[in-house]
Structure formats: structure tokens, C-alpha cells
Design brief:
Elements: E1 11-12, E2 19-20, H1 34-53
This protein binds zinc ion (ZN).
């Protein structure tokens, strides 16, 4: 009897680059927590504003 094993590549946190254990392959984690996600979004926002303002 075979057990289906799904290999999931460990993704690093987009903010602090810490490898994240992927428990649910259908919803891959990209951040350690919501705080890191928020800081990343804020950084992206200001990068966009900076690009628009040239
Ligand atoms: Zn992080």
C-alpha cells in the first residue's frame, strides 16, 4: 500500500528569508506571519509610489 507523498519545496519568507515549512501545498506560506506580510506589502506600496513619482 502506497501513501501519497507530496514533495513541497521549502519557500523562504519573502520578508526575512527564513525557510518556511509547507504544511498545506494548496496554500503555500510566503511569510512567517501576518506582520511580515504587512511589512512586505508596505514596502511594495512605497516602491510602487516611488516608481510612479519617478
Ligand atoms: Zn519572516
Amino acid at each position: 500500500m502506497g501513501v501519497i507523498e507530496i514533495e513541497v519545496d521549502p519557500l523562504p519568507c519573502k520578508w526575512c528569508r527564513r525557510p518556511l515549512e509547507q504544511r498545506r501545498w494548496w496554500t503555500p506560506k510566503r511569510f512567517c506571519n501576518g506582520w511580515h506580510r504587512l511589512k512586505y506589502r508596505v514596502t511594495q506600496f512605497f516602491a510602487l509610489v516611488g516608481t510612479l513619482l519617478g
